[in-house]
Amino acid sequence: MTVSTVKTDQASAAVPPVARPSAPAHIIRDDAEAIAVARALAAEFIKDSSRRDRERIWPVAELDAFSQSGLWSINVPKAFGGPEVSYATLAKVIEIISAADSSIGQIAQNHLGVVAAIRTVSDADQQKLLFAEVLKGTRFGNAFSEFGSKRAADFETRFTDAGDHVVVNGRKFYSSGALLAHLVPIVALDDEGRAWYAIADRGAPGLTVIDDWSSFGQRTTLSGTVIIDNVKVPKTHLVPGYKGYDRPTADGAIFQIIQVAVDTGIAQAAIDETVHFIRTRSRAWIDSGVDNAWDDPYTIQAVGDLTLRLHAAQALLEKAGLAIDKAVAEPTAETVAHAQIVTAEAKILSTEIAIAATNKLFELAGTRSTLAEHNLDRHWRNARTHTLHDPVRWKYSILGKYFLNGENPPLHAWS
């Protein structure tokens, strides 16, 4: 493991790129193997997850194990040598990893989303080229969001045509995974205002990634500021992302379902911690008439309620994955809208249970659970930070408009 040496007050120093994998990544055979590999990795990732959060230690070895395991290529189509697992399986993989360490679960989100976008919008030659990179173990980071724009979809980063390549200029923030990526997809506009993914080499001249992520949650998502100063990107790596939203496709729902899976994983982790603490450390309340905290009837009821709501979120997560599978196979206005709607429902439940479970942990486990040695507040901090993606209040609006007025959700990466 590597401790970050570039602190927020010294953010002028760029973080150097990492080397590409020296050996090809494993290729997952099927859905069952994907789940088994995720569980095996999670068992290792959880061991030092609290320390990584407390000391903000980058998950270098963990990330290498994750991407080399084959789980970063599970949505590469079979036609290009990939596993092409169900999106229900992909979501479960991210949930399992996120229950062990939600920062590591989030790092894969934009990589998998870009892989999906390449399938949707790239021509066969570009797909062959980029999918081959992914199957080898190459990691995409991201340089999508911008700090000062009025809305999330407003971009100032642009590129200009320079023959066999384009030149990109701009500045990005919230760039999860960019610090230890091998390639960095940059959302940049052409002269018509259309958004593309300009996939730059992490070590390209003019591409600077700064370790200045200072949020109280999701502390080791390898995010920060990306400065793009006349960065050259070959046209072979210029992906017309806008095409994923100028007609009905599952691209937006795919980006969304991975967010849902992270939050569901956080909720699972919080409930697991709650049960463990009550069973090993908590005391029964003086008026309860019982000797053990786990026999307290109010505690029993609360844990049952949390678990029920978690299972409801997990069921909708699986349902959303299956709906996305259908929308990928048969992209029509109806199938895409259905996938978006079920994913929005899952997003609501996963957000609500992640916040409830991470908050209820302390109420049920008791005062001892707030001691710094346990670092249990990391689950609440992670849930509160990550669930701010794509506000749930707008998901309710999407559902109401759909079920009341027959209005399909908008087509973008946040829906």
Task: Looking at this protein, list some descriptive labels.
3-stranded antiparallel β-sheet; disordered N terminus; 4-stranded antiparallel β-sheet; 415 residues; alpha+beta; 11 helices; 11% strand
Word description of this protein:
- This protein has 415 residues and is of the alpha+beta class.
- Helix content is 48%, strand content 11%.
- It has a 4-stranded antiparallel β-sheet with strand order 3-4-8-7, with no helix packed on it.
- A hairpin with a 5-residue loop joins strand 5 and strand 6.
- The longest helix has 33 residues.
- It is globular, with a radius of gyration of 21 Å.
- It starts with a strand and ends in a 10-residue tail after the last helix.
- The N terminus is likely disordered.
Contiguous low-pLDDT stretches (5 residues minimum) are 1-11
Strand percent estimate? 5-15%
Major beta-sheet overview:
4 strands, antiparallel
User: Please, how many helices?
Assistant: 11
* Order of H and E elements: EHHEHHHHEEEEEEEHHHHH
Number of strands: 9
- What is Rg? 21 Å
Helix content: 40-55%
Shape: globular
Strand order of the largest sheet: 3-4-8-7
Distance between the ends: 36 Å
Query: What structural class results from the helix and strand content?
Result: alpha+beta
